[in-house]
Amino acid sequence: MKKFLLLILFLLVIGSVYADEISIESVFSSPREVAPGENLQVSIDLRNVGTRDIENVAVKLDLTQVPFAPLDSSTEFVIKEINKKDTENILFNIVALPNASPGVYKIPIHVSYENISKDALISLTIQAKPQLLVELETSDILYKESSGIVTINFVNKGLSDIKFLTVTLEQSSNYEIIGSDTVYIGDIDIDDSQTADFNIYLNGNGELPLTLEYRDANNNLYIDNQIISFNVYTKEEAEKLGLVKKSNSLIYLIVIVVILVAIFLFRRLRRKK
């Protein structure tokens, strides 16, 4: 009985040594971050830490659940032999799919040999810098010394969602801000847009300095400064261009004066008669 137990213990020890013969020493990618459509390499170092040579070591990247694809190569590689105490390096060339959403993705790595299997993970980041288009939507203000609403349009034309967008209209001697100078817009999806309204009294040129603060899909912070311009006319120019209706106050005044003069002359002629 004692010999049998010793034999079982010996087999367990031998099995554990064999199970640990191939070690995954390091896994890394170059570069660490890629944009959609860009290429990268995944490098894996395998070391034989056992006391014997190991043949037919298979290494596979599992890309089934992530937006990556092999590039001019397979996702599986077989090493014919790793000698004891030696290290072998494997390179996988892959590409981030053009329509991939920004984010952090975990790729499983499977290593197998002699009915033994080991797993590891590598994290790859897809990063796309947001592209926020800022443009004038509408403006109620056509000439100086007048107030109105200026509407700014924000378009997400990039490959990353925009999160927590806050827009601030900076102070200027060209105008007075009526109400709040900050508008919280929030999230703007890809190929979508949102607007913000600012109520101002204009006494200078039509330039609005804006500060934009937002984050991308990977929670990176961006702060951007932009200037939105719009045409400003004198009141006479706006009337001449037909942008505003001409004032009839002068005509009304002339008519009233003419009527009053006519009444005065009529009464004076009656008194003479």
Brief overview:
The chain is of the alpha+beta class.
Structure overview:
With 273 residues, this protein is of the alpha+beta class. It folds into two domains: 20-126, Sandwich (Immunoglobulin-like), CATH 2.60.40.10; 132-245, Immunoglobulins (Immunoglobulin-like, Sandwich). The protein is built from three helices and 17 strands. The radius of gyration is 38 Å and the shape is rod-shaped.
Topology:
Elements: H1 2-19, E1 22-30, E2 33-34, E3 39-48, E4 54-61, E5 68-70, E6 76-82, E7 87-96, E8 103-113, E9 116-126, E10 132-139, E11 146-156, E12 162-169, E13 175-178, E14 182-188, E15 193-202, E16 207-215, E17 221-229, H2 235-240, H3 249-272
Parallel strand pairs: 2-9
Antiparallel strand pairs: 1-3, 3-7, 4-6, 4-8, 5-7, 8-9, 10-11, 11-15, 12-14, 12-16, 13-15, 16-17
> How many strands appear in the DSSP assignment?
17
Terminus-to-terminus distance: 155 Å
Q: How many structurally independent domains?
A: 2
Q: What structural class is derived from the secondary structure elements?
A: alpha+beta
- Give the percentage of residues in beta strands: over 45%
Order of strands, widest sheet: 2-9-8-4-6
- Sum up the overall morphology in one term: rod-shaped
- The low-confidence parts are 1-19
Strand count, sense and barrel status of the largest sheet are:
5 strands, mixed
Within CATH, the superfamily of the largest domain carries the name: Immunoglobulins
- CATH classification, class level of the largest domain: Mainly Beta
What's the pLDDT, averaged over the residues?
84
Distinct helical segment count:
3
- SSE string: HEEEEEEEEEEEEEEEEEHH
Task: Please give the CATH architecture of the largest domain.
Answer: Sandwich
Q: What is the CATH topology classification name of the largest domain?
A: Immunoglobulin-like
The helix content is 10-25%
Radius of gyration: 38 Å
